[in-house]
Amino acid sequence: MAGGGESHRDFMTGANKSERFKRICDGVWRDRDAILSRCSGLSGEATLVRAVYWRLCNAWGEPGQMADSCYTGNTLLTYERLVSIMLAQHAGPHFDGAPLLNELVRHYRDETRAEGVENCVELKVRQG
Fold it and tell me: How many angstroms separate the CA atoms of 15 and 38, rounded?
């Protein structure tokens, strides 16, 4: 798996599911420049949460679903929901990944605010 290298078995047998999920989120944050360079019109927040979702799909061998065609304002919420569903199915119904996703989004917003960037597309232009 990109950014984490963990198999389905590693994720499921680990004693600390929160730490393993945190590693996936940290991997997305670490790889954010590459991830955001392919944001394809999504908000930066939705792009990062989408990356978490796809890394979970890869970790569990799931085919995943594209939600990019959703109304742009709902794309972040849609990917947050997909991550939540994946976690409930594979990590257990009592596992709450929302705080870690919220932290990822907060870091992104803090970083873009500090750089005076409004969105993912503007960030790409500045980096490009």
Answer: 34
Residues 6+ away with beta carbon under 8 Å from 73: none
Q: Check residue 123 and give left, alpha or beta (phi > 0: left; psi -120 to 50: alpha).
A: alpha
Q: From 88, 93, 92, 66, select the one nearest 79 (Cα to Cα).
A: 66
In angstroms, the CA 46 to CA 90 distance is 22
Query: Which parts of 1-128 fold into alpha helices (H)?
Result: 8-13, 17-30, 32-36, 44-60, 72-90, 98-115, 120-127
Low-confidence ranges of the chain (pLDDT < 70): 1-16, 66-73, 117-128
pTM of the predicted protein model: 0.77
